[in-house]
Design goal:
With about 300 residues, this protein is an alpha+beta fold. Helices cover about 45% and strands about 10% of the residues. Strands 2-1-7-6-5 form a 5-stranded antiparallel sheet, with helices on both faces. The chain has a two-stranded antiparallel ribbon with strand order 3-4. Helix 1 runs antiparallel to helix 13, helix 2 packs antiparallel against helix 11 and helix 4 packs across helix 8. The protein is globular. The two termini are about 20 Å apart. The model has no long low-confidence stretch (mean pLDDT about 95). It binds glutamine (GLN). Glutamine (GLN) binds next to loops.
Length: about 300
């Protein structure tokens, strides 16, 4: 399969689509990003890699970080994590509040904000230096020690993160947040602010496609946990568009409002796209278009 050509053709074809999507603006710092950027990076289990467009431009990974925090917390505390959240799709936007009220403070899954904030709370309880330890975990997954937080994005979200404060308060009222709200959200905003490019993200997700074994050949994630996290990505990785992503693309994956999408075919490859223009559900418009074309043309989805 000539992946290089396929990616370049898809990049060209999708770039020509009329793009009425919008950059996320509820976090002021993200609104400054130029919408006309578009990168794709693919790495496969045999160690080959291919790219097209802006694959080495860093961007805010936002909700894609929820997969990393989940992997870290699941790794250290195992199945007790599921006493505090469920693994069902929510069918609602990432920052939706009323479901949490109705379900008495038990988030539907770890990939919506409420679930991710509980995961963050678990990490605050278990880690000595949560921000440093989490960043190191991501750097090791990606095998790249240059990855860092974007402190301006974190501060910008902290200033305007009213819905996340509401979620944290609701969780606290149901006794499902054990540490101080300020401390948990400060860590949550930082983890969302991590800046990475398509290549670094594909490398960091290699372990999820490779039964938990990272590119450096050591086991970073327990194989049975990698399997479960992939299942959660498939059913919950795209908020109220998880069904649409499975229907159009057919891979486990995770999106973020920075415009990134990572998707993977277990035992085969990881593909990351980035384009900051979002559709009305908060997922990258070009990214969804590109991934649909990719799995259709290469005939390679989990279905
Ligand atoms: N930091 C963002 C928030 O909490 C993440 C949302 C996302 O990427 N969908 O609102």
């Amino acid at each position: 399969m000539n992946y290089k050509q396929i990616l370049q053709d898809i990049h060209k074809e999708v770039s020509a689509l009329k793009n009425t999507s919008e950059v996320a603006n509820y976090i002021p710092e993200l609104a400054k990003v130029n919408k006309d950027q578009f990168g794709i990076y693919l790495n496969n289990i045999n160690g080959e890699n291919f790219e097209a467009g802006d694959a080495d431009v860093t961007f805010s990974i936002q909700s894609i970080s929820k997969v990393f925090s989940l992997a870290m917390a699941f790794g250290s505390q195992g199945d007790t994590l599921w006493e505090r959240m469920d693994v069902e799709p929510s069918g609602n936007p990432f920052n939706y509040l009323s479901l949490l009220e109705r379900e008495k403070g038990i988030p539907r899954n770890p990939l919506i904000n409420s679930g991710a904030i509980v995961v963050t709370d678990c990490l605050v309880s278990s880690l000595k230096n949560p921000k440093e330890d989490f960043l190191q975990f991501v750097r090791d997954l990606a095998n790249d020690q240059t990855i860092d937080y974007d402190y301006e994005v974190a501060a910008s979200e902290k200033d305007t993160g009213f819905r996340n404060y509401a979620i944290a308060n609701l969780l606290k009222s149901f006794d499902n947040l054990h540490n101080p709200i300020e401390e948990v959200l400060d860590f949550y905003f930082h983890q969302c602010s991590i800046a990475m490019n398509c290549k670094q993200l594909s490398n960091a997700f290699f372990a999820f496609a490779n039964r938990g074994v990272c590119m450096q050949n050591n086991t970073c994630i327990k194989p049975k946990q990698a399997k479960r996290i992939n299942a959660i990505m498939l059913t919950c990785g795209f908020y109220d568009e998880a069904g649409e992503f499975a229907f159009e693309v057919g891979l486990p994956g995770k999106s973020g409002v920075g415009g990134g999408i990572v998707a993977l075919l277990p035992n085969q490859y990881v593909i990351t796209t980035w384009s900051p223009g979002l559709n009305e559900k908060g997922n990258s418009y070009y990214g969804m278009q590109a991934l649909e074309r990719f799995t259709t043309q290469t005939n390679s989805s989990i279905f």
